[in-house]
Design a protein that fits this description.
The chain is an all-alpha fold. The chain has 6 helices and no strands. 12% of the residues are buried.
């Protein structure tokens, strides 16, 4: 393995120090990312599913889905990603769900 150059090492060290300062609140990040909240009810309705069907598809409780739809909580992690996919390509989600229930790929 080729050793890291001094210049690259110093750049990495500076980046780690800057990250630490941001985490400690000493500096503001140069850029931030925000995501528009999901309209979970609209996504579910576009799929033509009831709350019970949609919660089963996602593997969550109906109560969790209702909390999302009413804005009391926001989906996170894998659920958020799956919902974004369902929003952008509802047929892909329905096809995947059908293939899981029918045992085909």
């Amino acid at each position: 393995m080729k050793p890291m150059s001094d210049e690259l090492f110093e750049e990495l060290r500076a980046s780690v120090r800057e990250g630490g300062a941001i985490l400690r609140g000493e500096h503001q990040p140069e850029r931030t990312f925000t995501f528009a909240p999901l309209d979970v009810r609209r996504i579910r309705q576009n799929l033509g599913l009831s709350q019970r069907q949609f919660s089963a598809l996602l593997g969550i409780s109906v109560n969790t889905l209702q909390n999302w739809e009413q804005g009391r909580r926001q989906p996170r992690g894998a659920a958020q990603i799956l919902l974004r996919i369902a929003e952008q390509s509802p047929q892909a989600v329905l096809n995947a769900a059908r293939s899981m229930t029918s045992g085909t790929k």
